[in-house]
């Protein structure tokens, strides 16, 4: 493999792994904010305690995913300079601003609000504390928006002009309102909320299978998760259809591949005319994405119908079905990302800058070494993330450490024995200190 293929493979691996963290982050944080708000507004101590325990439990799972996901995001950001310096030279004046804003929001604003929320339990007023997690959710989606502004420019370059082989931003409003950006963000937000809702519902169903004694806790979580997934599934398909219409106008070859109209004769004619056709195997992730999308659009609605009287978890097959749904949104999201990105090859900035022109002037051996190292580290982080999340989810509310009160000192630490606290004259040093003598 040459340096171009190795660099593409490295970016695909690191971005796919990072995306798994991102989907759960975007999908889970609004649900944590909802339960924390219900705790802040609860009128009875019993309700307040229940919703606070829910916020701490689901918040702990969110924090685990966020902490490990930040590291994968750093690796992904570094690759723009390490592997794709040609992109910075050509489109840095346009591409750099959204990435800088995303970095400031994610690594400064979002992390700051999250830190205040983590350490604010028992220290801040209830309303202020609940507002912090909403600010975390808001900045998380703002961060996603700026990433999609950058990606939307690569898919559909707008709001710029090229002078001397370099792109210069001329219309910031056009960049922000790029149809490719807005439609993709709607699709991603819907998919993330479906993923977060099914994750919450699946973990809750698992505890019902284990005959949990925390029935009110997981019944409330199950209902919130199913309702969120059901509502988010409604715009999921329309946003996907809107993206295909955008592709039909902006990237007709990609749209033809999706519709099955790019047969071998069309592919040969396109390549003979000097064009480029996406790889033939790309129809596989496209089909997987669509098939899983139908499942994810219908299953939450069916689960919503079965919620009354706990019918969804009263029968073990339906409860296990909810658990089995948990990984499907993540698989569909990765397949969708593969189709979106690989389908526009060989262009990095569609119609203007090719991948070969954007790759850095480094040796294949150097990229291979970084590919192995990055893949190993990020793969280990992904495994660690899911192991830690699975363990915390398995333990249930008893294993929550987020927001837990400080442990009481042991009885033998409360008081010092008088024989140990006496001075040379036999008098208590503590009593002497109190008298100031």
Task: Describe the overall structure.
The protein is an all-alpha fold and 437 residues long. It has 2 domains: 1-177 and 361-388, no CATH class; 179-351, no CATH class. Helices cover 75% and strands 3% of the residues. The protein is built from 17 helices and 4 strands. A two-stranded antiparallel ribbon has the order 1-2. Helix 2 runs antiparallel to helix 15 and helix 3 (85-118) packs antiparallel against helix 4. It starts with a helix and ends with a helix.
Q: How many E strands?
A: 4
- Major sheet attributes: 2 strands, antiparallel
Percent of residues in β-strands: under 5%
Taken together, the total number of domains comes to 2
Q: What's the rounded overall pLDDT mean?
A: 86
**What is the CA-CA span between the terminal residues?**
82 Å
Gross morphology is globular
The helix/strand series, from N terminus to C terminus, equals HHHHEEHHHHHHHHHEEHHHH
Total number of helices: 17
Query: Strand sequence of the main sheet, in spatial order?
Result: 1-2
Uncertain regions: pLDDT < 50 for 5+ in a row?
Answer: 412-424, 428-437
- Class of secondary structure makeup: mainly alpha
Computed over alpha carbons, the radius of gyration is 26 Å
Query: Helix content range of the residues, please?
Result: over 70%
């Amino acid at each position: 493999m040459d340096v171009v293929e190795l660099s593409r493979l490295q970016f695909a691996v690191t971005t796919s792994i990072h995306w798994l963290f991102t989907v759960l982050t975007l999908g889970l944080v609004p649900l944590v904010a909802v339960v924390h708000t219900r705790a802040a507004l609860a009128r009875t101590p019993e309700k307040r305690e229940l919703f606070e325990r829910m916020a701490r439990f689901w918040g702990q799972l969110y924090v685990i995913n966020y902490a490990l996901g930040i590291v994968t995001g750093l690796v992904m950001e570094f690759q723009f300079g390490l592997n794709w310096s040609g992109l910075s030279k050509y489109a840095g004046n346009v591409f750099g601003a959204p990435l800088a804003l995303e970095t400031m929001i994610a690594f400064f604003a979002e992390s700051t609000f999250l830190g205040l929320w983590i350490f604010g339990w028992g220290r801040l007023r209830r309303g202020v504390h609940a507002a912090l997690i909403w600010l975390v959710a808001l900045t998380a989606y703002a961060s996603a928006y700026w990433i999609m502004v950058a990606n939307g420019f690569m898919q559909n370059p707008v709001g710029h002009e090229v002078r001397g082989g370099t792109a210069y931003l001329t219309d910031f409003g056009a960049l922000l309102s790029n149809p490719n950006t807005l439609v993709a963000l709607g699709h991603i937000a819907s998919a993330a909320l479906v993923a977060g809702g099914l994750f919450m519902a699946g973990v809750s169903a698992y505890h019902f299978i284990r005959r949990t004694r925390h029935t009110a806790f997981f019944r409330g979580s199950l209902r919130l998760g199913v309702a969120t997934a059901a509502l988010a599934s409604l715009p999921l398909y329309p946003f996907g259809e809107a993206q295909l219409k955008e592709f039909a106008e902006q990237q007709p070859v990609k749209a033809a591949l999706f519709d099955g109209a790019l047969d071998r004769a069309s592919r040969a004619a396109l390549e003979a005319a000097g064009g480029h056709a996406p790889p033939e195997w790309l129809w596989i992730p496209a089909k997987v994405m669509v098939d899983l999308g139908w499942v994810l659009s219908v299953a939450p609605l069916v689960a919503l119908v079965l919620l009354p009287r706990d019918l969804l978890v009263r029968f073990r097959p339906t409860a296990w079905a909810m658990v089995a749904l948990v990984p499907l949104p993540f698989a569909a999201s990765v397949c969708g990302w593969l189709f979106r990105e690989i389908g526009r090859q060989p262009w990095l900035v569609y119609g203007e800058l090719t991948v070969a022109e954007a790759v850095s002037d480094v040796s294949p051996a150097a990229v291979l070494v970084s590919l192995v190292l990055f893949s190993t580290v990020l793969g280990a982080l992904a495994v660690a993330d899911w192991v830690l999340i699975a363990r915390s989810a398995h333990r249930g509310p008893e294993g929550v450490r987020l927001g837990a009160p400080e442990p009481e000192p042991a009885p033998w630490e409360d008081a010092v024995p008088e024989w140990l606290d006496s001075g040379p004259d036999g008098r208590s040093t503590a009593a002497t200190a109190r008298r100031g003598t």
